[in-house]
Design brief:
By secondary structure, this protein is an alpha/beta fold. The chain has helices at about 25-40, 55-65, 80-90, 105-110, 115-135, 150-160, 180-190, 210-220, 240-250, 265-275, 300-305, 335-345, 350-365, 370-385, 395-410, 425-430, and strands at about 5, 5-10, 45, 70-75, 95-100, 135-140, 165-170, 200-205, 225, 255-260. Bound molecules: zinc ion. Zinc ion binds next to loops.
Length: about 425
């Protein structure tokens, strides 16, 4: 079977950032955007420019800096939103305006207070206006899975006519199930005659089905998946990027699709997001959780020692989880140290790494084997990262022990400067609950 290319659309910086406790400032968004670039995502949805000055500045900065992926910005189906999105995006190498408008009767009646006819007209006008500014326009009928199918198709046909090249089908409230969603995508695929129009999915995880629904949609003809790192997003979150990427890779025998994702960058991306938001990854989270590759039962350990394939469907290294057997000591070079820092979600330039390295050598002289939690403390002391949570695979007990013991004994020479407080957080971003 021929392998079809799936476009990976990351919305960690937009939908993900809308989740409680996950707001990020401009510098943090830029740092994560660089990691998304290394991860190989095709589209980065950088924000919702009309939502706040901070969101606008973040989209503008990412559009100016990150050149390989398409940079998308969200806009409601009205001129001020679309103009603002374009203002933020226009410096991008590959800009995309993402317009959305709710189409379900419940949203039309109670939220927007418009008729179906008005909705159809507004969607068409908005896409036509966006297209006059930007060649790449995506349209999302919000709450698509609860929209009457015939009306949904009328809206989709109208926006394609107006210039939309991607039709994103959001399961905004996380209500659909895989067979039902696949049938909806098939029906849309048959109705939209234009082969060049890409069908996309955007699934929420309220029933824990976001990844399953996304994969079912791909089997039914969708070729773009919207998802987030660690599955963060509104309420129960979005489809998890790492789970989708790993499923497509591990089960390539059943999924004849490929992505541009560099799976070895999945764990560093997860760690970086966790470090920025201070929201830990649940220990049993697939792919990136602390226990994802831990084997405790005796019979499992015995099997693993004889042959890892007995209980392991993928290696930790294939998704970027550091090889804990590779011990860092005083004979480790800058390269090994830099690599381990990257795996833990920290990118440093040469000067910064030199500084870490000098302190690492002093520490390694004292304690022989430098564990990941030692290294994270050293990074925190040196560069003021306000990390407060153990990374997913670092044993919590070791970190707790390090916090009470090692902190005072292993770092006597490091100054205990207060952590810088972010001044760029926009409180209005956290309250801004619009989105697909
Ligand atoms: Zn969403």
């Amino acid at each position: 079977m021929e392998s079809a290319r799936i476009t990976m659309f990351d919305t960690t910086l937009r939908d993900g950032e809308q989740s409680p406790g996950c707001s990020m400032n401009v510098q943090e968004k830029l740092r994560l955007a660089h990691q998304l670039d290394r991860l190989g995502v095709d589209v980065i949805e950088a924000g919702f420019p009309i939502a706040s000055e901070g969101d606008f500045a973040a989209v503008q900065a990412i559009a100016a800096t990150i050149r390989r992926p398409t940079i998308a910005a969200l806009a409601r189906a009205c001129r001020p939103d679309i103009e603002r999105a374009w203002q933020a995006l226009k410096g991008a190498e590959k800009p995309r305006i993402h317009v959305f408008l709710a189409t379900s009767d419940i949203h039309l009646r109670y939220k927007l207070k418009i008729s179906r006819e008005e909705c159809l007209q507004q969607a068409e006008d908005a896409v036509r206006f966006a297209k006059s500014l930007c060649a790449d326009v995506e349209f999302s009928p919000e709450d698509a899975t609860r929209t009457e199918p015939e009306f949904l198709c009328q809206v989709l046909e109208a926006v394609v006519e107006a210039g939309a090249s991607t039709l994103n089908i959001p399961d905004t409230v996380g209500y659909t199930i895989p067979t039902e969603f696949a049938a909806l995508i098939s029906m849309i695929r048959q109705r939209i005659k234009n082969e060049k129009v890409m069908i996309s999915t955007h699934c929420h995880n309220d029933l824990g089905l976001a990844v399953a629904n996304s994969l079912a949609a791909v089997e039914a003809g969708a070729r773009q998946i919207e998802c987030t790192i660690n599955g963060i997003g509104e309420r129960a979150g979005n489809a998890s990027l790492e789970e989708i990427a790993a499923a497509l890779r591990v089960r390539a025998d059943r999924y004849p699709y490929h992505t541009g994702i560099v799976t070895e960058q999945l764990f560093p991306a997860s760690q970086m997001l966790s470090d920025i938001t201070k929201v830990p990854v649940q220990p049993n989270k697939a792919i990136t959780g602390r226990n994802a590759f831990a084997h405790e039962a005796g019979i499992h350990q015995d099997g693993m020692l004889k042959n890892p394939l007995t209980y392991e469907i993928m290696t930790p290294q294939s998704v970027g989880v550091p090889d804990s057997k590779l011990v860092l000591g005083k004979h480790s070079g800058r390269h090994a140290l830099g690599l381990r820092c990257e795996q833990l979600g920290h990118q440093f330039d040469r000067r910064e790494l030199d500084e870490i390295y000098r302190k690492f050598v002093v520490l390694a002289d004292k304690i022989k084997h430098v564990q990941d939690h030692h290294l994270l403390e050293l990074i925190e002391h040196t560069h003021g990262s306000s990390r407060r949570i153990p990374p997913a695979h670092v044993d919590a007990r070791a970190t707790a022990a390090a916090a009470v013991g090692a902190r005072s004994t292993n770092f006597p020479e490091l100054p205990s400067t207060p952590l810088p407080l972010s001044s760029e957080h926009q409180p209005d971003q956290e309250d801004y609950l619009w989105g697909v």
